[in-house]
Write a structure and sequence with these properties.
By secondary structure, the protein is α/β, with parallel strands linked by helices. It has 35 helices and 15 strands. The strands form 3 sheets. It has a 10-stranded mixed β-sheet, with helices on both faces. A 3-stranded antiparallel β-sheet has the order 2-1-5, with no helix packed on it. A hairpin with a 2-residue loop joins β1 and β2. α9 packs antiparallel against α21. It is a multi-pass membrane protein. Keywords: Cell membrane, Chloride, Glycoprotein, Ion transport, Membrane, Phosphoprotein, Potassium, Potassium transport, Symport, Transmembrane, Transmembrane helix, Transport. One of its GO terms (cellular component) is plasma membrane. GO terms for molecular function: potassium:chloride symporter activity.
Length: 1065
């Protein structure tokens, strides 16, 4: 966890919490800084003491560090203002972890449902259910202990552990689900308290009453809704008044729980010698509801007369002894009375070893009693004890598991613990061990002491509406009834106080926009002013209780996953003090959590996972820009390393080839991207797939330009985000721009994940500029890409390219396939058409046929080739007849060479002048170092396509004065006399025949392309290679200009020397 690290955070403000990234290195104490700077024994380090403090300063800040969770910026000021009034955490293992965990684990299930689970599933399967649930929580506690002891755990508990181990997306999603689970747990405890209150404490308090004995469930639900809302409101008032009162009452509530459990054990021991008297009335082998009659018999003796009993009146329509109007089953079976609590020495455990799962409405029967199987009347069904729901093993697992939860109660209080790293593991594991032993022993005791039909009686109808577990307790069933009532109320209060703490921890991390801290009222150690809306509706949403089980399991699953990921990654910061963990145990716990989720209810599991998934995507979409050193990032790095090593095996197959782009951008003087449409084109070409590296070059010295480099990278990243380009940014500093571009071409990428295509802009305005550096840098880049066997794309007139918001409803993408260059011209239109901007454009392919070519056959072959490539395109073959070189072509070539010669002479005269200036500067200054210093002071950041000539030293003429001598005046006079001669040479120059031929080709192709593709949305064209003789570089630029004249959008494409498209599958 990053909170253990002692480091300087270099992240921007959006990444994580500064206090969390660097909790000890506060530089607010200026006095201590001054004393650090002038320490005589640390003179060697005095210049760095502002970022690398003395060890004594570090330790003093470490001691004063508090592990209370840090909030958002607006709350940090309030925290600093209240620092003097803040009390340090002082809770130990017993009060801070062990007892809260006991109170949260023990609860409503133990007293209300465990006997029913034992009776339905049997002792053996109940033991298995308890073992599964307790093993799951124990494995989770082991993983949680490892995470909790790997650094300081502020308030937030499980959420903090998961978010800092698996990232903000997982942490936020699971944290909110855990919050909802805790909220629904409060509803479960409240409903349990209301059930005890209305069924066993004061049944007369019921507001709604059933119309008859068959319609009792609906009235009970309505009573629970009303009383549940009242109880929740009263508990909310208690919480609102102050958490300290809840903490004070917690000891009382826990004492009630312990006394109740002790009374169960005391009653079980007493039952060996003197079992309690709770007779069960049976009709045949069917169990009767005892509260509907007084005497367990068909007749009673009143004086000397035998008269029908109340039971007879229930089953017969008349009070006489005539059997004509009685229920058939009642007539043919005898009424018997058995002992409901036979006792520990009775051997009843043999009958209760195996389960008896029932369907809804099935009557509770004791198989060992004799019975005549006669179909009775449905009118008498309400007099029997029957199952209210259909039962199965998976259902019982889901019902029991909430009684094993609550293990996070200690970690949720981590901000209040004196030593959380010690208290959380010890207290949690001891609490789980204690509760597990109680559950295991209770299963055995219930099965060994209580009759099976009584165990399966969920609401105690057979024992005269008594709580079943209360019938076993000693000295009185009221001990269990009162104790269980207060324990459920206490557990509900704990949930009401724990859920807001968790929600506040999530909100303060500022990863979920709708949970902004400013929209929530503050929680402090004394009060909670934070109302939880889900609590208000939870008594009305009984189905939501099913999600509680799934939410808790999901939280436990991710705690195990976090521990396993951290262990397997072996990150240097993973150094837990708790040593008794292993990644295999974490994976086993994770597997058990996942299995229990689907075993209990697969559809609720899918819904819960869907809720967590939507929260995850919401946080990811909103951009949770947090860097917490989480394990998912480490896992991504490991996966990336593995994949890169696999890619090193060789180049990708032709079927897997896709353009991996290196986009060379030009920055202006303000370090802004000059042509953003370069990135737009890259995003449209990639559509989010493959590798994209955006590079730029800053001219200068790296030591002096580091700040400009950071600013440039940030400007490029911002533009990439605007243009939706997913990729990486790299800015290099070089003394010459052409060298920087060469470095980018050579070194960008890593291993097998390198670029294979370079995208660069056209050097606009090269004709009007006397400076040759722009086009020389351009041509040098073309040569570098060719030497590196990389493909090259040059979008010309890129400012006219469409934005990502435009849509072409029609039009063509024209491909002029003049020479075969690996198939890139075929592949690029297909990739562009995947983007919504170009999707509705059609593709046309033109190829050029010479005089000796069969154009008809070429068209058929090309159509077949495109069919095999699975590309839909129109095919046209353009015939270019041999023709004489026109006067226009000859004149264009002549003008090109005259301009080139004129610029050469101008550059020679400038070079001569600069050499003269240099000679006099050497005489003027004492050392060459001074000259270099002056020259470097004049260097400014160059553009991407401009670079100084290696043989030219730039010195501003106005900063140098020339001393005229007679020799200089004579040389100047000769130059003036030679000017007319130079002009006559330009007039009499004859163009080179090879240049004439090239110009002829460029002119003819341009005429054909403009004629056929003047209305095309985009024209793709083979880019000719630069001449081998570098003296013709300027002519090469002219040829490209002529070739693309009159076209609005042109993409010049040059292949990398390998096939990129194939006809094979």
């Amino acid at each position: 966890m990053p909170i253990n690290k002692v480091e300087i955070s270099t992240l921007p403000p959006g990444h994580g919490n500064h206090k969390e990234d660097s909790p000890f290195l506060s530089t607010s104490d200026s006095a201590s800084k001054r004393s650090d700077y002038y320490d005589k024994n640390l003179a060697l380090f005095e210049e760095e003491l502002d970022i690398r403090p003395k060890v004594s300063s570090l330790l003093s800040r470490l001691v004063s560090y508090t592990n209370v969770t840090q909030g958002a910026k607006e709350h940090e000021e309030a925290e600093s203002a209240d620092a003097s009034r803040r009390q340090s955490p002082n809770m130990g293992t017993l009060m801070g972890v062990y007892l809260p965990c006991l109170q949260n684990i023990f609860g409503v299930i133990l007293f209300l449902r465990l006997t029913w689970i034992v009776g339905t599933a049997g002792v053996v399967q109940s033991f298995l259910i308890v073992l599964m649930c307790c093993s799951c929580t124990m494995l989770t506690a082991i993983s949680m202990s490892a995470i909790a002891t790997n650094g300081v755990v502020p308030a937030g508990g499980a959420y903090f552990m998961i978010s800092r181990s698996l990232g903000p997306e997982f942490g936020g999603a699971v944290g909110l689900c855990f919050y909802l689970g805790t909220t629904f747990a409060a509803a479960m405890y409240i409903l349990g308290a209301i059930e005890i209150f209305l069924k066993y404490l004061i049944p007369q308090a019921a507001i709604f009453h059933p119309a008859d004995i068959h319609a009792g469930s609906g009235a009970m639900l309505n009573n629970m809704r009303v009383y549940g809302t009242i109880c929740l409101s009263l508990m909310a008032v208690v919480v609102f008044v102050g958490v300290k009162y809840v903490n004070k009452l917690a000891s009382l509530f826990l004492a009630c729980v312990i006394i109740s459990i002790v009374s169960i054990y005391a009653g079980a021991v007493k039952s060996i010698f003197h079992p309690p008297e709770f007779p069960i009335c049976m009709l045949g082998n069917r169990t009767l509801s005892r509260d509907l009659f007084d005497v367990c018999g068909k007749t009673v003796v009143v004086g000397n007369d035998t008269v029908p009993s109340q039971l007879w009146k229930n089953f017969c329509s008349s009070e006489n002894s005539s059997s004509a109007h009685c229920d058939e089953y009642f007539l043919h079976n005898n009424v018997t009375e058995i002992q409901g609590i036979p006792g520990l020495a009775s051997g009843i455990i043999k009958e209760n070893l195996w389960g008896d799962y029932m369907e809804k409405g099935q009557i509770l029967e004791k198989a060992s009693l004799p019975s005549v199987d006669v179909h009775g009347s449905m009118e008498t069904f309400g007099f029997y004890v029957s199952a209210d729901i259909a039962t199965s093993f998976t259902l019982l697992v889901g019902i029991f598991f909430p009684s094993a939860t609550g293990i996070m109660a200690g970690s949720n209080r981590s901000g209040d613990l004196r030593d959380a790293q010690k208290s959380i593991p010890i207290g949690t594991i001891l609490a789980i061990t204690t509760t597990s032993l109680v559950y295991f022993s209770s299963v055995v005791l219930f099965g060994a002491c209580i009759e099976g039909v009584v165990l399966r009686d969920k609401f105690g109808d057979a024992v005269n509406k008594n709580l079943v577990v209360g019938t076993l307790s000693w000295p009185s069933p009221w001990v269990i009834v009162i104790g269980s009532f207060f324990s459920t109320v206490g557990a509900g209060l704990q949930s009401l106080t724990g859920a807001p703490r968790l929600l506040q921890a999530i909100a303060k991390d500022n990863i979920i926009p709708f949970l902004r801290v400013r929209d929530l009222l503050i929680y402090d150690r004394k009060k909670i002013y934070q109302m939880n809306t889900p609590h208000l509706f939870s008594p009305w949403c009984f189905s939501s209780l099913q999600y509680q089980f799934e939410f808790f399991l999901m939280c436990y699953l991710f705690v195990n996953l976090a521990c396993a990921v951290q262990t397997l990654l072996r990150t240097p910061n993973w150094r837990p003090r708790f040593r008794y963990y292993h990644w295999a145990l974490s994976f086993l716990g994770m597997s058990m959590c996942l299995a229990l989720m689907f075993i209990s209810s697969w559809y609720y599991a899918i819904v819960a996972m869907g809720i967590a998934g939507m929260i995850y995507k919401y946080i990811e979409y909103q951009g949770a820009e947090k860097e917490w050193g989480d394990g998912i990032r480490g896992l991504s790095l490991s996966a990336a390393r593995y994949s890169l090593l696999r890619l090193e095996a060789g180049p990708p197959h032709t079927k897997n080839w896709r353009p991996q782009l290196l986009v060379l951008l030009k920055l202006d003087e303000d370090l802004h991207v000059k042509y953003p449409r370069m990135l737009t084109f890259a995003s449209q070409l990639k559509a989010g797939k493959g590798l994209t590296i955006v590079g730029s070059v800053i001219q200068g010295n790296f030591l002096e330009c580091y700040g400009e480099t950071q600013a440039s990278e940030q400007a490029i990243k911002n533009m990439m985000e605007i243009e939706r380009v997913k990729g990486f940014c790299q800015v290099v500093v070089a003394s010459k721009v052409r060298e920087g571009i060469a470095h980018l071409i050579q070194s960008c990428g890593l291993g097998g994940m390198k670029h294979n295509t370079v995208v660069m802009g056209w050097p606009y305005g090269w004709r009007q500029s006397e400076d040759p550096r722009a086009w020389k840098t351009f041509i040098n880049t073309v040569r570098c890409t060719t030497a590196a066997h990389l493909a090259l794309m040059v979008p010309k007139n890129v400012s006219f390219y469409p934005s990502n918001h435009e849509r072409f409803s029609d039009g063509y993408i024209d491909v002029w396939w003049i020479v075969h260059d690996g198939g890139m011209l075929m592949l690029l239109p297909f990739l562009l058409k995947q983007h919504k901007v170009w999707r509705k454009c059609k593709m046309r392919i033109f190829t050029v046929a010479q005089m000796d070519d069969n154009s008809i056959q070429m068209k058929k072959d090309l159509a077949t080739f495109l069919y095999q490539l699975r590309l839909e395109a129109e095919v046209e073959v353009v015939e270019m007849h041999d023709s004489d070189i026109s006067a226009y072509t000859y004149e264009r070539t002549l003008m090109m060479e005259q301009r080139s010669q004129m610029l050469k002479q101008m550059r020679l005269s400038i070079a001569e002048r600069d050499r003269e200036v240099l000679r006099h500067s050497l005489l003027k200054y004492a050392s060459f170092a001074q000259l270099v210093k002056d020259r470097h002071s004049l260097i400014r950041m160059g553009s991407l396509y401009s670079d100084e000539e290696e043989e030219t030293i730039e010195v501003l003429p106005e900063k140098n004065q020339m001393t005229w001598t007679s020799e200089k005046m004579e040389a100047e006079r000769r130059n003036r006399n030679n000017a007319p001669e130079n002009f006559r040479e330009l007039i009499s120059i004859k163009p080179d025949q090879s240049n004439v031929r090239r110009m002829h080709t460029a002119v003819k192709l341009n005429e054909v392309i403009v004629n056929r593709s003047h209305d095309a949305r985009l024209v793709l064209l083979n880019m000719p290679g630069p001449p081998r003789n570098q003296e013709g570089d300027e002519n090469y630029m002219e040829f490209l200009e002529v070739l693309t004249e009159g076209l609005e959008r042109v993409l010049l494409v040059r292949g990398g020397g390998r096939e990129v498209i194939t006809i094979y599958s």
